[in-house]
Amino acid sequence: MKKLASMMCVLLLSVGLLAGCGGAPNDSSAAPAGGTAETGPKKGGTIIVGLNGDPTTYNPDFKGDDNGFAIYQNIFNRLYKINNNQEIVPDLAESYALSPDGKELTFHLHKNVKWHDGKPFSSADVKFTYDTIIKEKGQISGSLSSIQEITTPDDNTVVFKLKQNDSALLGYLSWYGCFIMPKHLYEGTDWGTNPANQKPVGTGPFKFVEHQKGVSITLERNDEYWGHVPYLDRVVFSIMSDSNTATQALYNGQLDFLGIEPPLAEAERFMSNPQLKAGKQNWPSRFHVAFNVSEGPFANLKLREAVAYGINRDEVIKKALKGVGLSAKTAMTPLYQWALNSTDVYPDRDVEKAKKLMEEAGYKADSKGMYLTATLDVFNSEPFPDIATVLKDNLKDIGIDVKINVMEGAAWDEKVWNNKNYEFTLLSGYQGPDPGGLYGRFASEGTMNIMKYSNPKLDENLKKGAALVKVEERAPFYKEAQKLLVADKPMVPIAEQIGVVPYQAYIMGAPTSPEAIQKTGFTEFTYVWINK
């Protein structure tokens, strides 16, 4: 694994909080990434990036919005962030220090940072952001339960006082729903309806210009950015809900970055096309079935077990993922080998065992061999409808008649993610940034726990695992938590995700390129320039 230059310290995700780490501010006057000694990058130009649908809000901490995330990444900053090498690196904070007892986490902020409206950024914005996330139960609030109090000794220092050591906290602060928000625009308002939610003001490398609903979102370079000033004049996100249409637009040169999940059947074609750059990349993300375990048919554990025995992972990978994926049978991503429980795993397909479980659950087969009908809600992004189609066939074999409900992303977010009004669904998503990430997805108070799952023993193990520092001490608690998940089955893993990220060959400094991979996060275009 590559290391950043001494001006920036990298924290490996599997290590958790260390005693301290620092780095100097980004130097925008240094030799630009991606250039040559003779020419250097070209400044200017506009890139067009595909986007699956309209964001519902530009408040990045309020609620989950997959369509907004790529935009948030370029408008806002966090204290620390996760780069494209899956490492935690400084962002608005240039360094941090952890007290010997692990109960005070102090961040030292960059100086002379401004909001896009010209107002100065300070530690007060950081305190306001996290106080609001916790008070208003923002999307990541459940993962911040270890925070007792936040203080601001001066404009450039923030101190998180903790109830107990939390080795996963730095990762949470670098992840979803933890972008720093402008206190001067949000204080004293309803953060769900504030006008800034439609015209966002951040501290990031690009500024918001306009949103034409159903058409595009436009950002422009922030020439006064405190870090590395972008080369591009503008980034335009073109809304294309159909992945096949977007793929054709990429081939035709109408898109510079595909931006949305591509049709997996195109993977080899992307990589063999001389007009494009593309490569396969193992992602810490996995496709899985999630159940509503508190109401509806899948409140019955026997039915969840039957589904687990009914899934043919190899068939899903072959037919729906076009061979681009790896079978997933553990309760946690194998990214964190030190904490992985590879003994207690989900079962292989066994149709007769599944039918027996259906009978034990109290169901009787009808004349067509069907025990029940269940609705599978999926959003219309590739490859979820295809996975759903294979699962429908798999589960028909065990006597479940699956009705597939394909929805626009925003509608799925509202029905499934926000209101939890569903029977079962399909998910993927970043499985990090530490094994402690299991808390957000599966703990009783986890803000990403759409399954309505609750097991006090699981909660206890996850809290104990986060309260320790050494991985060898943390590992047993996470392994026990995975054992409980396999037994309770609030979800069933299907496949580890392998991503293919295609873009035009004239694009330099892409987020996953060697020039930018350690400096930028997912879909962050700070170092991108156009070589034509």
UniProtKB/TrEMBL annotation:
InterPro entries per the UniProt record, alphabetical: Peptide/Ni-bd, SBP_5, SBP_5_dom
MF terms in GO: peptide transmembrane transporter activity
Source domain of life: Bacteria
Keyword line: Signal, Transport
Family: Belongs to the bacterial solute-binding protein 5 family.
Protein name as catalogued: ABC transporter substrate-binding protein
Single Gene Ontology BP annotation: peptide transport
Example of a GO cellular component annotation carried by this entry: ATP-binding cassette (ABC) transporter complex
Domain Solute-binding protein family positions: 87-446
Annotated Pfam families: SBP_bac_5
PROSITE patterns associated with the record: PROKAR_LIPOPROTEIN
Position of the signal peptide: 1-19
